Amino acid sequence: METVIHGFLDHPIFRIVSRSAAESGVRAFVIGGYVRDCFLGRNCSDIDIVVEGSGISLAEAVAAKVHSKVTVFKNFGTAMLHYRGMEVEFVGARRESYSRDSRKPVVENGTLREDQERRDFTINAMAFSLQDEDFGALVDPFGGIKDLDEGIIRTPLDPDTTYSDDPLRMLRAVRFATMLSTPEHSFHIVQESLDSMRRQRDRLSILSKERIVEELDKILLCKKPSDGFRLLDGTGLLEIILPQLSKLKGVETLEGKGHKDNFSHTLQVLDNVAAEDAEGNLWLRWAALLHDIGKPACKRFVPGTGWTFHGHDAIGARMVPRIFQELKMPMNEKMKYVQKLVALHLRPIALVDEGVTDSAVRRLLFDAGDDIDDLMLLCNADITSKNPVKVAKIKANFALVRTKLVEVEAKDAIRNFKNPITGDYVMQVFGIPPGKEIGVLKEYVKEAILDGKIRNDFAEADMLMREKAAELGLAPLP
């Protein structure tokens, strides 16, 4: 059996585990993602060790040698420790059986082969032996190394059994096909698995929303997330998980006028954002995914004009909280960030059409605040016309908007705008209790600043407030 050591098992932890296993009278193997990523040349600092025996006991023996703390998860029969930049998790080899209404298996002690059979995909079932007699030997009973070379996502056992037992594996199949693909080496799910996913899609009902979203997040953070969402759509999973997105599909034509396929457009925008988003901003990518989500609700055909989607930005913004709630996603500032970007995603382009005035730019800066840069990235990604002349013109105008944003921000400091006139100050000056007049005065001053009638300056704001107050019959205290 061929052994692989150099570059794969050089880290000292592997020899330490090997010695500890021999001393404990058990057999240990590196298994799963670390083995897969070694062959793909991907960096991996997570090591999974499967033990034909007690994984927790072996972890404690290794920890004693390396003077590391062990974290034990008794409910899962696993233990984890850190050593020289590596996170090492130990688990006993096991076989599993499932009931129809749960993805939580009944677990029994098993052999390495039985443990490999329960793995989700052949490329994740490969193992390296850590025994002295064959240290580094590849244990690959299902041809994972061949599938890895050919870019195949395939289950070790019958896919109907694999996906029915744990339907999360269907989402993981999509995630791995998306995550592992590169321009030089693409991955695809075998047809029998795709067919099985269509048959088993209703099994998603036994999954928690949190686990589903966890996989969606990982797909969104891939270099080309559109691949994952096309797979979700093709297998019917998307219609169950995010039906609002599925409704974007399709092109309708009346009087010879059609509209673009908003689903394909959305995925192109998502890829464009991913290409520019070097930091991996998950919530910006959610905003890209949902930016046109309101279009089906406001789709109209106007004779002589064609298809319109007026107001889809506002409708989409109202849909965002409901979608987050349905998926049990955070309803905090992250949701509000996505909602804001969806609500504002047409504004920068509208500036190009309506004229890039200082007043319009101030209002955009005021509404977007610190998220203006992310909004501009999203809006630039939203330019997807197949007409290169049109794209070049829009992007040139868009560059003018960017320049104007910088100029106005430098001059007026609107991005983190705070009204110079506060409610407390109004009550102090005029000696009045809380009431509608305070809101009227504050709003009047704010609008004047955003319109450029006065500078964002306390003295000018105070003078304007007093003028407006006189119109309302308010006089300052002596």
Could you please describe the fold and organization of this structure?
Among the domains are: 12-150, Beta Polymerase, domain 2; 152-241, Hydrophobic Seed Protein (Orthogonal Bundle); 423-471, no CATH class. The longest helix is centred in the C-terminal third of the chain and has 25 residues, at 388-412. The protein is elongated and about 95 Å long. The chain contains 24 helices and 15 strands. It has 478 residues and is of the alpha+beta class. α1 (12-24) packs across α3 (55-66), α7 packs antiparallel against α10 (226-234) and α16 (312-326) runs antiparallel to α17. It has helices at 12-24, 33-40, 55-66, 112-117, 144-150, 159-165, 168-180, 191-200, 209-220, 226-234, 237-241, 243-246, 262-276, 282-290, 295-298, 312-326, 333-344, 347-354, 358-368, 372-381, 388-412, 423-430, 436-450, 458-471, and strands at 27-31, 46-52, 71-73, 78-83, 86-92, 94-97, 106-109, 127-129, 138-139, 152-153, 188-189, 253-254, 257-258, 300-302, 306-308.
